[in-house]
Design a protein that fits this description.
Layout: E1 2-5, H1 12-22, E2 26-28, E3 32-33, E4 48-49, H2 52-60, E5 64-70, E6 73-78, H3 79-87, E7 91-95, H4 98-108, E8 113-118, H5 122-132, H6 137-151, E9 159-162, H7 166-182, H8 189-204
Parallel strand pairs: 1-7, 1-8, 2-7, 3-4, 8-9
Antiparallel strand pairs: 3-6, 5-6
Length: 207
Protein backbone atom coordinates (compact mmCIF):
# COMPACT_ATOMS: atom_id res chain seq x y z
CA UNK A 1 0.00 0.00 0.00
CA UNK A 2 1.53 3.29 -1.13
CA UNK A 3 0.00 6.28 0.64
CA UNK A 4 0.47 9.68 -0.99
CA UNK A 5 -0.82 12.63 1.04
CA UNK A 6 -0.65 16.41 0.72
CA UNK A 7 -2.74 19.50 1.32
CA UNK A 8 -5.16 20.33 -1.51
CA UNK A 9 -3.30 21.97 -4.37
CA UNK A 10 0.15 20.54 -3.60
CA UNK A 11 -0.02 18.11 -6.53
CA UNK A 12 -0.69 14.64 -5.12
CA UNK A 13 -3.54 13.82 -7.51
CA UNK A 14 -1.49 14.77 -10.58
CA UNK A 15 1.47 12.73 -9.33
CA UNK A 16 -0.59 9.67 -8.42
CA UNK A 17 -2.32 9.61 -11.82
CA UNK A 18 1.05 9.82 -13.57
CA UNK A 19 2.45 6.98 -11.46
CA UNK A 20 -0.53 4.77 -12.34
CA UNK A 21 -0.13 5.60 -16.01
CA UNK A 22 3.63 5.00 -16.18
CA UNK A 23 4.44 2.19 -13.73
CA UNK A 24 3.51 -1.46 -14.18
CA UNK A 25 1.70 -3.35 -11.43
CA UNK A 26 0.31 -0.20 -9.80
CA UNK A 27 -3.39 0.55 -9.39
CA UNK A 28 -5.18 3.47 -7.83
CA UNK A 29 -7.47 2.89 -4.88
CA UNK A 30 -10.73 4.61 -5.83
CA UNK A 31 -12.44 6.08 -2.78
CA UNK A 32 -16.15 6.43 -2.13
CA UNK A 33 -17.44 9.88 -1.24
CA UNK A 34 -20.70 11.52 -0.28
CA UNK A 35 -19.92 14.81 -2.01
CA UNK A 36 -21.42 15.73 -5.38
CA UNK A 37 -19.60 14.92 -8.59
CA UNK A 38 -17.77 17.83 -10.20
CA UNK A 39 -18.23 18.48 -13.94
CA UNK A 40 -14.78 17.13 -14.84
CA UNK A 41 -15.08 13.94 -12.75
CA UNK A 42 -16.13 10.45 -13.80
CA UNK A 43 -17.83 7.79 -11.71
CA UNK A 44 -15.38 4.96 -10.95
CA UNK A 45 -12.39 6.92 -12.26
CA UNK A 46 -12.08 9.71 -9.71
CA UNK A 47 -14.49 8.49 -7.02
CA UNK A 48 -17.53 6.32 -6.43
CA UNK A 49 -20.24 8.83 -5.53
CA UNK A 50 -22.67 7.47 -2.95
CA UNK A 51 -25.23 8.84 -0.48
CA UNK A 52 -24.88 9.10 3.30
CA UNK A 53 -26.99 6.01 4.02
CA UNK A 54 -24.86 3.81 1.76
CA UNK A 55 -21.66 5.20 3.28
CA UNK A 56 -22.88 4.61 6.85
CA UNK A 57 -23.87 1.04 5.97
CA UNK A 58 -20.40 0.38 4.56
CA UNK A 59 -18.91 1.57 7.87
CA UNK A 60 -21.25 -0.67 9.89
CA UNK A 61 -20.49 -3.69 7.67
CA UNK A 62 -16.73 -3.15 7.97
CA UNK A 63 -16.37 -2.62 4.23
CA UNK A 64 -14.05 0.41 4.52
CA UNK A 65 -10.33 0.19 5.30
CA UNK A 66 -10.35 3.83 6.38
CA UNK A 67 -12.71 6.79 6.39
CA UNK A 68 -12.60 10.52 7.09
CA UNK A 69 -14.80 13.58 7.01
CA UNK A 70 -13.31 16.38 4.91
CA UNK A 71 -15.08 19.73 4.45
CA UNK A 72 -18.37 18.19 5.59
CA UNK A 73 -18.27 15.19 3.23
CA UNK A 74 -17.36 11.59 3.99
CA UNK A 75 -14.63 9.69 2.16
CA UNK A 76 -13.56 6.07 2.51
CA UNK A 77 -11.57 3.23 0.93
CA UNK A 78 -13.51 0.08 -0.09
CA UNK A 79 -11.82 -2.97 1.44
CA UNK A 80 -12.47 -5.70 -1.15
CA UNK A 81 -10.93 -3.99 -4.19
CA UNK A 82 -7.73 -3.13 -2.34
CA UNK A 83 -7.19 -6.64 -0.96
CA UNK A 84 -7.92 -8.23 -4.36
CA UNK A 85 -5.24 -6.09 -6.03
CA UNK A 86 -2.67 -6.79 -3.31
CA UNK A 87 -3.30 -10.52 -3.59
CA UNK A 88 -2.76 -10.16 -7.35
CA UNK A 89 0.72 -8.74 -6.66
CA UNK A 90 -0.02 -5.10 -7.40
CA UNK A 91 1.00 -1.97 -5.50
CA UNK A 92 -2.12 -0.06 -4.50
CA UNK A 93 -1.72 3.73 -4.55
CA UNK A 94 -3.77 5.73 -2.02
CA UNK A 95 -4.53 9.41 -2.62
CA UNK A 96 -5.74 10.14 0.93
CA UNK A 97 -5.22 12.62 3.76
CA UNK A 98 -3.39 12.16 7.06
CA UNK A 99 -6.52 10.87 8.81
CA UNK A 100 -6.91 7.97 6.41
CA UNK A 101 -3.17 7.33 6.45
CA UNK A 102 -3.22 7.07 10.24
CA UNK A 103 -6.03 4.51 10.15
CA UNK A 104 -4.25 2.35 7.58
CA UNK A 105 -1.04 2.38 9.62
CA UNK A 106 -2.91 1.03 12.64
CA UNK A 107 -3.96 -2.10 10.74
CA UNK A 108 -1.36 -2.60 8.01
CA UNK A 109 1.86 -1.12 9.41
CA UNK A 110 4.19 -3.72 7.85
CA UNK A 111 2.75 -3.26 4.36
CA UNK A 112 2.71 0.52 3.99
CA UNK A 113 4.95 3.01 2.24
CA UNK A 114 3.92 6.61 2.94
CA UNK A 115 4.94 9.77 1.08
CA UNK A 116 3.98 13.37 1.87
CA UNK A 117 3.93 16.06 -0.83
CA UNK A 118 4.68 19.63 0.28
CA UNK A 119 4.08 22.80 -1.77
CA UNK A 120 7.10 25.07 -2.30
CA UNK A 121 5.38 27.98 -0.50
CA UNK A 122 2.03 29.14 0.91
CA UNK A 123 1.71 31.68 -1.91
CA UNK A 124 2.22 29.02 -4.57
CA UNK A 125 -0.31 26.75 -2.87
CA UNK A 126 -2.95 29.49 -2.91
CA UNK A 127 -2.13 30.31 -6.52
CA UNK A 128 -2.64 26.69 -7.57
CA UNK A 129 -5.98 26.49 -5.77
CA UNK A 130 -7.17 29.65 -7.52
CA UNK A 131 -5.96 28.46 -10.94
CA UNK A 132 -7.89 25.20 -10.57
CA UNK A 133 -11.07 27.31 -10.73
CA UNK A 134 -13.03 24.61 -8.88
CA UNK A 135 -13.87 26.36 -5.63
CA UNK A 136 -15.21 29.66 -4.33
CA UNK A 137 -12.92 31.95 -2.34
CA UNK A 138 -14.60 30.79 0.89
CA UNK A 139 -13.80 27.16 0.06
CA UNK A 140 -10.23 28.09 -0.88
CA UNK A 141 -9.82 29.72 2.54
CA UNK A 142 -11.10 26.52 4.17
CA UNK A 143 -8.62 24.50 2.12
CA UNK A 144 -5.77 26.74 3.26
CA UNK A 145 -6.85 26.30 6.89
CA UNK A 146 -6.97 22.55 6.31
CA UNK A 147 -3.51 22.69 4.71
CA UNK A 148 -2.15 24.17 7.92
CA UNK A 149 -3.48 21.20 9.90
CA UNK A 150 -2.42 18.65 7.26
CA UNK A 151 1.17 19.86 7.01
CA UNK A 152 1.62 19.43 10.76
CA UNK A 153 1.60 15.66 10.17
CA UNK A 154 4.47 15.62 7.66
CA UNK A 155 6.85 13.81 10.02
CA UNK A 156 4.52 10.80 10.28
CA UNK A 157 5.49 9.81 6.71
CA UNK A 158 8.41 7.77 5.39
CA UNK A 159 9.39 10.22 2.65
CA UNK A 160 8.85 13.92 1.95
CA UNK A 161 8.83 15.54 -1.51
CA UNK A 162 8.72 19.33 -2.01
CA UNK A 163 6.78 19.77 -5.25
CA UNK A 164 8.37 22.86 -6.74
CA UNK A 165 8.82 21.15 -10.13
CA UNK A 166 6.31 18.53 -11.30
CA UNK A 167 8.71 16.46 -13.42
CA UNK A 168 11.41 16.47 -10.76
CA UNK A 169 8.91 15.53 -8.07
CA UNK A 170 7.56 12.71 -10.21
CA UNK A 171 11.07 11.32 -10.73
CA UNK A 172 11.62 11.38 -6.96
CA UNK A 173 8.32 9.63 -6.32
CA UNK A 174 8.99 6.96 -8.94
CA UNK A 175 12.50 6.35 -7.57
CA UNK A 176 11.14 5.91 -4.04
CA UNK A 177 8.63 3.27 -5.15
CA UNK A 178 11.21 1.39 -7.23
CA UNK A 179 13.72 1.42 -4.35
CA UNK A 180 11.12 0.15 -1.88
CA UNK A 181 10.19 -2.66 -4.26
CA UNK A 182 13.82 -3.80 -4.24
CA UNK A 183 13.94 -4.22 -0.46
CA UNK A 184 13.93 -7.76 0.90
CA UNK A 185 10.55 -8.03 2.57
CA UNK A 186 8.67 -10.93 4.10
CA UNK A 187 6.63 -11.27 0.93
CA UNK A 188 9.54 -11.72 -1.47
CA UNK A 189 12.31 -13.13 0.74
CA UNK A 190 11.21 -16.73 0.03
CA UNK A 191 11.59 -16.23 -3.74
CA UNK A 192 14.99 -14.57 -3.29
CA UNK A 193 16.12 -17.35 -0.96
CA UNK A 194 15.18 -19.98 -3.54
CA UNK A 195 16.98 -18.07 -6.30
CA UNK A 196 20.13 -17.78 -4.17
CA UNK A 197 20.11 -21.52 -3.40
CA UNK A 198 19.84 -22.40 -7.08
CA UNK A 199 22.54 -19.88 -7.95
CA UNK A 200 24.91 -21.25 -5.29
CA UNK A 201 24.35 -24.82 -6.50
CA UNK A 202 25.11 -23.78 -10.08
CA UNK A 203 28.27 -21.99 -8.97
CA UNK A 204 29.46 -24.89 -6.81
CA UNK A 205 29.27 -27.14 -9.84
CA UNK A 206 31.69 -24.87 -11.66
CA UNK A 207 34.32 -24.63 -8.91
Amino acid sequence: MVIISSPSGAGKTTLTRKIISDMDDTVLSISVTTRKKRPNEEEGLHYYFINEDTFNQMVVDGNLLESANVFGYNYGTPRDRVLENIQAGKDVIFDIDWQGASQLRENFKENILSIFILPPSAGELMSRLIKRDQDSLDVIKKRLNSAYDEIKHWNEYDYIIINDDLEGSYNQLRSIIIAERMKISKTNSANIDLHVKVLMEELSGRL
